[in-house]
Design brief:
homotetramer; Gyrase A, domain 2; 3 domains; five-stranded antiparallel sheet; 12 helices
């Protein structure tokens, strides 16, 4: 995998080799993949570098609210399903996870909008960025969608793809060449011109384009992680952030298998029906034939309604 | 210790006996006291039930910002001092801790104002509260302060103390007797009167006074924990919450000894001087004799200024 | 109305009489009721004391994201419905409202769990609380529910109601008498016993029960206000907080009528169906007869499913 | 001013011409400049588009905590100074302000780290960005600092400046030319090549560099605004964000003059001394000659200590 430097690979190997004794709860599934980098896109990755709690932490927190009275009544699985179904969110805040992520800057700009998280990002004021930028695979080069103002339409043809990739690659390479030139040092950090100092890093970085890679540590709790996944693992999310969400979804399954299952059932695969949609639904279940004009739903809402029921 | 039920003591003993293997970072100091309840006030306690990260997590997060360039330059201790001195807060958000706390309701009402935390509280809608209420020790029964509108003054005399304690105890006992009566069950949960159901728990609880004990799980990150401690371990904090903060301060020392040391130095024992105070200070250091009227400070601000310099 | 002091009534009258010129957007509906106190429970109230923005602020914020391209396409009403239907929350954070609320302490304890808000509460460390406590009307005195561990069941009989009300009233009166006694002053603030100072306010308050009234300023944005209302105007919320939510719901209607309408439609009257529930629904719409055992839903989930469809 | 489009200038003129009647509190100073755009950098601006509350809102919130007892004692100015001096933050959360800001993307990336705010940003998934990018003035082109890993050193020479500006300008122009080419439309939005659709906007944008301008609405409360200003109006902040902070500082003065004055005094011009620094200070005030080695301060801390006292 070229997404990691040799130094990073070594660090990961060492970290994984270490084994310590703890009195804390352990998630066996997550321990297995701890520190390992899962490659994403052409140079990115996601890896878990620490965590706290498991499904049991959710259950324990829910039960402090119920008191001793209900201790034996509910089973863990049923309780977790109940909590998610009824939007009881605070017990899911009791488990925490920390990721190390390498991602293109335009993806980082979407990701950072999730405010209920802690972030420490690699700073291009302190350090020089590497010559690493995202170039989409040809099969992900889509034209602007006609119906959806923010979406992608059909994949572009082979010739156009080649042209696009050349532009993106040439510009990124030239931007980086000039970035080094402005900094007055070469790829290895050696000074280029003796007679002058390079431009301040905090200025030179502005010449890099939004597909350059950055890195950060990102820590959040299980509740906010699910909020992130609900939005970013959604088919409407931009492909380049969705692939990160999908990797994290897989990590979620290893970490908290019961919560993962309930999350799929009550969030990812669930659908919400408005008051008007419910009325239409009840009429349909009573055997009535209902059309859009029989309701107060707009054309767009009606289409979404049918799609949820797989009737379109 | 009477602050724990026998059931709780047993659970703690069991939890402490278990030992698991992990690839995660471990704080040896904290592992030693994990799950143990430290008694606070007459029936309360604080205990750590989980954590994530240690001093190293702070350093690691700070260094991702500096990039590889500075990896070997700074030592951990100096870096942590630097971060706190310059109010770099995000690296301290990368470590997390979870407490189980038993505390009087009026203390819980102050505590909950710290919003950057996660809480699951024992619910008196679901369960019946125990006959446990806070009665101050005689030496903490102070008269209203004359100078400080929100503080305590001198300790009251022995006769008055006895009178106060009798009132507090009698009222709490009667409130609890009536609480059970309203619920229509006795101390053991047995129904009292066969001919009727008890009042809903969510209503009956309103008859309890603010010194009754509640319990919660409280989880926060290291940065927000220090904010909590700066306010609540302060001499101006109400005694009944300060004793909790002092226990947590001791836990902080075991968990993250370097951060603890820097926190003492740059927060607890530090003092801030306003622009005007700095001007006065510079004149004094230049040998000038300065009095309040030579400055634009108010009497109150001047007194605080002298106190910080131990000149009052 | 006895829920306001004469002083407060006068202040409100004066505040409402004033009229100023502004370049800001104005919500006519909210201006009409600004500062007015709506009575809630026996001594409580809710009043709006400031606000920023209206439905237009939501639309404006949504459109900055769409850019100039879509400026004329969407109408405001449709856009607001679209935003709520698709859980686009940030535009609703752009309007803000501030309330002055008087409420029993046990209600305040539920309310404060909504962390995304700003609060300044009347402090019993600085000032003496009034002799005001909540006593439920007889028709709200319900027995503990048998099915629902946290709910209310049937209303208690007249004789039992009388008994309950006597206990609650007597205990609250006695608690307050003793509170004054501990403070060593009478109702008017005059010292009772010359030979001693009263107990510190921060201690004496612990003798008050949870039905005593407190007051606060509470400020939040439109998005978080709707979160509050979704949980607290829900039929499962405790009656004593629900009545506050219902008053605020009415204020919402005056402030942002379009958002209010969409909120009713897509939140209050909406229902979410899990993946399993959707499968059952699709089979039913295809004419199949489906029973609980044909699905993987639990008995409880199945009952909820039928209830949403009004088939139970 | 070329920082606004003609359309924007017109909108601002219209918005400023409107005048409405309100019962709300009004900040005369802020009304005067409401909606007006203050130019920042070569194409950016800051303008206030709404607000709620003024200095009085802070005072009112502080007093609800003190209760009626202290109503007449403190004057507003003294109270606000007291609150800031003693880090009482919640009353400052009671006033709110909303800005419209146009700023380079690399500045936006620093700005967004302030999480306690609400943001709606212009989306390059929905709309095409303009040909507007930041090119520093020659006098702000500084070399990398030698001492400070994240700072700027001396301004570069005229010849080098010319070279740098040419690189930055050429690359940004070319990036934008290719951005339009990828989108397959010209500056006016007309399709370039008939035989194909342009690349999806969400992809094409990645070819733009970090100095391109974006826009957003940004709303925060007075407390969090001061946190932002403390960090971003600081001499160590990057010049390109500091100029925005300075404009906002000027707006703060118009909006809440008393808070502004206290903020200067107790934050901007204040300095914090650690426990060790305080000990040294006390010895110096007692007439002792103190050097770094007499203390446990590091060289760096000692230099900062002297700088605060203007003794270096």
């Amino acid at each position: 995998m070229t997404n990691l430097t040799q130094e990073q690979s070594l660090e990961i190997k060492e970290a994984r080799a270490a084994s310590r004794v703890t009195r804390r709860v352990v998630s066996e599934g997550l321990e297995e993949v701890l520190y390992q980098a899962v490659p994403v896109l052409d140079h990115g990755f996601v890896r878990v570098i620490d965590y706290m709690g498991d499904d049991g932490a959710v259950v324990q927190a829910a039960r402090v609210s119920y008191g001793r009275g209900t201790k034996k009544i509910s089973e863990d699985r049923g309780l977790i399903h109940y909590l998610l179904r009824h939007w009881h969110t605070t017990p899911f805040e009791m488990a925490e996870i920390k990721f190390h992520v390498k991602l293109p800057i335009f993806v980082a700009r979407q990701w950072i909008r999730h405010r209920m998280a802690n972030v420490n990002e690699y700073s291009a004021r302190y350090s020089t960025l590497d010559r690493e930028f995202y170039i989409p695979a040809a099969e992900h080069l889509s034209a602007q969608s006609v119906q959806n103002r923010q979406g992608r339409g059909e994949v572009v043809g082979a010739a156009e793809a080649e042209r696009v990739l050349r532009i993106l690659t040439d510009d990124a390479q030239r931007n980086y060449d000039h970035y080094l030139d402005l900094l007055n040092h070469d790829e290895g950090g050696q000074q280029l011109r003796d007679d002058q100092r390079g431009l301040a890093r905090e200025l030179a970085r502005m010449n890099l384009s939004l597909n350059f890679y950055t890195q950060w540590y990102w820590k959040t709790d299980l509740h906010n992680l699910m909020n992130f996944l609900r939005l970013r693992a959604d088919p409407h999310a931009q492909y380049e952030i969705r692939v990160y969400a999908e990797v994290i979804l897989d990590i979620l399954k290893k970490w908290v298998p019961l919560t993962y299952e309930a999350f799929r059932e009550h969030r990812l695969e669930a659908a919400t029906f408005s008051g008007e949609a419910l009325k239409a639904l009840r009429r349909m279940l009573a055997g009535e034939h209902v059309e859009q004009l029989d309701t107060s739903m707009s054309k767009r809402e009606w289409d979404e309604f049918l799609a949820k029921l797989e009737l379109s």
